[in-house]
Amino acid sequence: MQAAQRVISLSLMFTLACINDPIPGGPGQPDAGAPPGGSAADELVREWSGCMTLDHFKLAGMATAWGSLAAANGQACSSCHGSGLQGFYADRDDVGMFTAISTIKGFLVMFFSPDVANHKMIVNETIFVAVAAGQPPFAGHPPFEPRNNAGMTALRSFHNVTLLQQQAHTCDPPRLH
């Protein structure tokens, strides 16, 4: 296995380890979140969910950017992921998409990943690179440019304003269910 594949595999493993139920709507509760006193990664994700705001989400243009982003076959992300297919939620509806990613951990960690060592959340670029390349378990996904697209630009902007919100200690209570 090449070094890049090992990094991606490990990143996916760690991301999926943070998800209580990786398929929202699957068996059991869609996402129970972390119990009080949970792991450091769970706590970072829970806190982040309260730091995200709908106003910042709209300002970054997240729904338009991700919902309209098209793969190489011309198909927009929202055409498959508007309902959260395969654990990824992308839709042109601001309120619907924001609600999904701020209240369901499985959706949130597709966009943001806990960096426990540095006690912060980061943009989860690794997963987008893996999906774009059709690496397992994403075989069959149409290719797309994973780093330089409107979705990633919006995501980085949303991350930056959310980080400022967190650093200012002005977050709401966690939104995760």
Helix content: 40-55%
Strand order of the largest sheet: 1-2
The structural class is mainly alpha
Number of domain modules: 1
Q: Beta-strand level of the residues, as a percent range?
A: under 5%
What does the overall shape look like? globular
Overall mean pLDDT: 83
Please report the distance between the alpha carbons of the first and last residues: 38 Å
Order of helices and strands: HHHHHHHEEHH
| Uncertain runs | 1-37
- Rg computed from alpha carbons, rounded to a whole number of angstroms: 15 Å
Major β-sheet annotation:
2 strands, antiparallel
List the helices and strands and how they pair.
Elements: H1 3-17, H2 40-51, H3 54-60, H4 62-68, H5 77-81, H6 94-103, H7 105-111, E1 112-115, E2 120-123, H8 125-132, H9 150-167
Antiparallel strand pairs: 1-2
